[in-house]
Every structure is written in C-alpha cells, then in structure tokens.
C-alpha cells in the first residue's frame, strides 16, 4: 500500500502569487465536469472558494439523484465531492495535476438535502507529487464530520488531456472562442 503521507524531505505547498484571494469563488473549470459543471444536470455543482495558503472550502448539496441507499448519499458520490475539492487545490498552486490515489473514510451517513461543507488543503509536495487531505461536515463548517479523505495528485502536462481525451470533447474545448474557458477546460491558469 503506497502512503498518502508526505515523505521526509517533502516541501510545503506553495501558493502561487497570482492565486485568487481567500474567499474568492473559483467557479467551474469546465462546464461538463461532473463535480462542478453547470452542464451536468445530475452533477454535484460544487461551489469552491479559495482559502488561506493552499486550502479551499466547498459546498455540496446532496440531491435525490445522488442517493445510494434510500434517503442517503451514495459513498462514491461523496468521494467525488472530496476528489473535486482536493483537485481544485492545483488551481491555487498554478499546476495541472490529476488524482493518482484517493482514500476515503465514511464516518457517518449523509442524508439527502444535507449541505456538506468541505475543506481541503495541500499537506506537502515531493517532486511531481502533491499530498492533500479533506473532510466534509454536515450542515456547516462546525458540524459533525461525515467524510474524510487523503489523496495524492500527480502533476501532468496538458498533453495528459489532449492526448487521451475523446477527440470530440477535446476539439470542442479547443474551439471555444473564450480564451479563459479554453484554458480552464484543461485546468491551465489563464
Ligand atoms: C479543478 C480540477 C478538478 C479535477 C477533478 C478531480 C481530479 C480527478 O479526478 S483527475 C481524474 C482521475 N485521475 C486520472 O485519470 C489519472 C490516471 N492516471 C494516470 O494518468 C497516471 O497513472 C498518472 C499521470 C497519475 C501517473 O503516471 P506518470 O505520469 O507516468 O507518473 P509515474 O512516473 O508513474 O509516477 C510519478 C510518481 O507518482 C507515484 N504514483 C503514481 N501513481 C501512484 C498511485 N496510484 N499511488 C501512489 N503513488 C503513485 C509514483 O510512485 C512516482 O513517485 P516517485 O516520483 O516518488 O517515484
């Protein structure tokens, strides 16, 4: 089992000087992203804000389409919310990174209609590896912890997406006349 704890010699994560100020809503990076995009009717529609240092907060409202058991959120959906929240940390560091490994603890059940308050931070950087952790609390930032996760993100080049994504979506994203949207679809800071 490979560790999700930064190894000895890992550096602290660096907030990019041009990172959005704490409190700024980051907005969706890609309209069709299942985590944050407005173009996904059943998506999570996560709203993420920059925090201090390399940290973010996010809110996810659990809707009936997110059920696993009757009236309860599906665990995989909750993991997606954690993944998306930790994934947006790269935005504050101005790096492109994808999830390599993610481990979730499900601490308590999360009913439909819950507003899950998520927070995530980068815990260290080692070469291309970015170590992160996150938690989700029920009802507010002081509410009971429902889920916790640790994840390892790995920095990649933009070709990770352009070489591997389905051609139809890659072409559509690259043809977007809006330069900012075009860049953000590939997680590149404009
Ligand atoms: C705002 C943005 C929101 C984003 C949405 C949320 C994020 C996502 O869900 S991204 C989608 C899910 N992730 C993916 O599809 C990634 C698929 N995997 C891959 O493409 C590749 O395996 C990739 C890029 C992660 C790593 O491959 P590669 O670039 O060849 O790296 P590689 O050289 O093997 O490994 C680099 C380092 O990472 C480590 N590593 C790689 N994979 C893992 C893993 N699964 N677990 C632990 N360590 C790993 C290696 O051991 C190596 O460590 P070291 O430098 O100490 O030797």
UniProtKB/TrEMBL annotation:
Residues 1-22 are annotated as: Disordered. GO terms for molecular function: hydrolase activity. It is an enzyme of class 3 (hydrolase). It is found in: Cell projection, Ruffle membrane; Cytoplasm; Membrane. InterPro entries: HotDog_dom_sf, THEM4/THEM5_acyl-CoA_thioest, Thioestr_dom. The keyword Cell membrane applies. The keyword Transit peptide applies. It catalyses: decanoyl-CoA + H2O = decanoate + CoA + H(+); octanoyl-CoA + H2O = octanoate + CoA + H(+); dodecanoyl-CoA + H2O = dodecanoate + CoA + H(+); tetradecanoyl-CoA + H2O = tetradecanoate + CoA + H(+). Its EC number is 3.1.2.2. Residues 71-139 form the Thioesterase domain. It is a peripheral membrane protein. Keywords: Apoptosis, Cell membrane, Cell projection, Cytoplasm, Fatty acid metabolism, Hydrolase, Lipid metabolism, Membrane, Transit peptide. Belongs to the THEM4/THEM5 thioesterase family. This is Acyl-coenzyme A thioesterase THEM4. It comes from Streptomyces ovatisporus. The lineage of its organism: Bacteria, Bacillati, Actinomycetota, Actinomycetes, Kitasatosporales.
């Amino acid at each position: 089992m490979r560790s999700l704890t930064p190894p000895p010699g890992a550096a602290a994560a660096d907030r990019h000087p041009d990172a959005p100020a704490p409190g700024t809503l980051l907005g969706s990076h890609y309209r069709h992203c299942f985590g944050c995009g407005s173009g996904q009717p059943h998506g999570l529609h996560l709203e993420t804000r920059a925090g201090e240092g390399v940290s973010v907060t996010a809110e996810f409202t659990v809707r009936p389409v997110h059920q696993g058991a009757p009236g309860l959120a599906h665990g995989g959906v909750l993991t997606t919310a954690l993944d998306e929240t930790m994934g947006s940390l790269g935005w504050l560091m101005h790096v492109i990174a994808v999830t390599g490994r993610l481990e979730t603890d499900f601490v308590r059940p999360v009913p439909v209609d819950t507003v899950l308050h998520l927070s995530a931070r980068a815990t260290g950087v080692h070469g291309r590896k970015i170590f992160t952790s996150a938690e989700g609390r029920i009802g507010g930032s002081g509410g009971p912890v429902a889920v916790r996760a640790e994840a390892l993100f790995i920095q990649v080049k933009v070709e990770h997406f352009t070489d591997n994504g389905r051609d139809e979506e890659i072409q559509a994203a690259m043809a977007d006349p809006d330069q900012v949207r075009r860049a953000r679809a590939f997680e590149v800071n404009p």
